[in-house]
Amino acid sequence: MILCLKILFFLFVLAILKLVIIAIVFAEDIKTVQDRDPAAKSFLEVLLLYQGLHALINHRIAHFFYKRRLFFLARFISQLSRHITGIETHPGARIGKRFFIDHGMGVVIGETTIIGDDVLLYQGVTLGGTGLVKGKRHPTIGNNVVIGGGAKVLGDIVVGDNSYIGANAVVIKDVPPNSTVVGVPGRITKQDGKKIDVSLDHVHIIDPIMQNIEELEKRIEKLENSGQS
Ligand SMILES: CC(C)(COP(=O)(O)OP(=O)(O)OC[C@H]1O[C@@H](n2cnc3c(N)ncnc32)[C@H](O)[C@@H]1OP(=O)(O)O)[C@@H](O)C(=O)NCCC(=O)NCCS
What does the pLDDT read at residue 87? Predict the structure, then answer.
């Protein structure tokens, strides 16, 4: 009985020690969650209950082994993490500082993805490939980018710094810095703080079919209005 209690006490001390080490080593990542999620109430809550943070910590460990070519161990950690957190990050993905996945469930990050600093992803985001080609086949995300819930960013494309990808957008072409992209396929609606009129702008369009549809819509609206008056 006493031995059992001793073992339990030992395990408890070990768990506390582990938490303290995680809190120290990943202090910056924990602070990022506190800064970026208004719902986060305390350091302890973030440390113990935020799946996005747990997935990131597991990813940093898996990536450490991946870089040392211990691929099986790296993948094992990442798959275990996927089952616990619902977030699948391939251990090969390179993730910058102060990264935060809010809510997290259903996020998938591919092997050759590169993510800059201060990036925020919401649930259901896919940073994926478009085919079976080997080599770089996943996106490169710049610094200070926000990717909305359910958005898919596909292929070896670049999303420029300070850009917003709207919820449920599907982005398959490069996005210039300081842009807001929405829709399927993604189109730029704002750049450098200015609204882009997609029907007139020929530079920022990343989907010519959508441009044609919007031009037709405007012409129909004009015809209807002139018919009424
Ligand atoms: C795109 C986004 C960043 C808004 O950017 P914004 O610069 O404030 O844009 P606005 O709200 O002024 O909208 C600009 C245009 O895009 C449209 N739009 C905005 N978000 C959109 C989206 N996700 N999909 C399609 N169209 C969208 C607006 O209706 C508006 O259209 P209009 O010009 O024809 O009126 C934001 O809407 C978004 O999707 N954020 C992600 C948030 C998220 O995923 N939260 C999850 C929390 S759990």
Answer: 97
Give the Å distance between the CA of 106 and the centre of ligand 1.
21
Tell me the whole-structure pTM to 2 decimals. Answer: 0.84
Q: Indicate which atom in ligand 1 lies nearest the CA of residue 148.
A: 44
Q: Which residues neighbour 75 within 8 Å (Cβ) at sequence distance 6 or greater? A: 62, 91
Q: How far apart are CA 9 and CA 3, in angstroms?
A: 10
Distance, CA of 138 to CA of 86 (rounded, Å):
20
For residues 161 and 211, give the distance between their C-alpha atoms in angstroms, rounded to a whole number.
Answer: 24
pLDDT, tens digit, 9 for 90 and up, residues 107-147 = 999 999 999 999 999 999 999 998 778 899 999 999 999 99
Q: Nearest CA to 180 among 207, 147, 149, 212?
A: 147
Closest CA to 151 of 189, 181, 112, 196: 181
Residues forming a β-bridge with 114? 94, 140
